[in-house]
Amino acid sequence: MLLLSGPNIAGNEWKYVKDCLDTGWVSSVGAYVEQFEKLTAEFTGAKYAVATSSGTTALHICLLLNGIGTGDYVIAPNMTFIASINSIKYTGADPILIDVDPETWQMDLDLLEEFLQQECDITKAGCLFKKNGRRIKAIMPVHVLGNMCNMDRLLALAQKYQLTVLEDSTEALGSSYKGKHAGTFGLMGTFSYNGNKIITTGGGGMIVTDNEELAKHAKHLTTQAKSDPFEYVHDEIGYNYRLVNTAAAMGVGQMELLPGFLKRKQGIVAFYKSALEGVGDIQFQKIDKEVSPNWWLPTIMTIKQKNVLKILNDHKMQSRPFWVPMNQLRMFAQNVYYTKNDRSDYVYRKCLSIPCSTNITDDQLLAVSEKIKEVF
Ligand SMILES: *Cc1c(COP(=O)(O)O)cnc(C)c1O
Asked: Would you say the CB of residue 168 lies under 6 angstroms from ligand 1?
């Protein structure tokens, strides 16, 4: 089976993990955790990085640290992986789902602005949803597939409406907007090291921020909020959301490979574009010129989505449809979904992601491209 986006363990991962096993530093304390955090801060340009057990737990902590809880709203795009919206629900808050742009597949900023203008009031208590007077506290942009929206405009809207920006940049390690790294625009950003992400630790995550106090508090909350180095004194409800040293060791090895992975992803997309652009109605994700994406998961759009999915998967070339839009899931059907003509559904019905592991060969890329062409 040719995996959609599988791990590529090609550097010092073995050596570093072996070091953990040999020395017994396999658990929640160890030098690799700090090293992984340091490498991530350096790479992204963030001042602080705090490792977590997953991208989902990283998001949960960011929301908690900003006082988001029962009765609050958080704005998020309607097309995302479910973990973004679940993390909001964990806190007791509800999402306000904004429809996406049909070409970039990111949150549609025209719709966002319209929603804020027409449906919200700015008051001394912050931004309120007119319909029920509930507070909208934050906005969670998701850099879908490593692409990014116009961040200048998003930040300006967030400032005008007093919304804290917490980035779900879990898919965008290595992406940037006007040269600034994804995850460093908001008060806090997040990364994921799940097995299908651009680098992996098996499972894991990271919070990045320039705010020292928030970084310290994030470390505290993710490590059971223990406030005394010796005695078991805890000063708030904490979480066991830390990343273990063996996973961090793998992460350090993967960070060393990341620049090469980013190059390869570009090469993969360039290959697919030259092979598939102009074939039938196939279109690739639109990237604005200020954005330098990490091309995490090359994805094409076609009315023959179902046929392409079938032929590829029948030939053991793993390919996947896009996420079911959040408003179509049972748990979120009652939440606010702001849209004009349900672009999410349109995008969902036409998009599919095609094999793009960083260790895929050009021969395999050619074979996938030829199979796709057979459909048209
Ligand atoms: C992968 C992902 C997450 C969650 O990351 P995990 O490490 O799997 O918990 C959150 N949001 C988006 C958009 C993702 O793609």
From this structure: yes
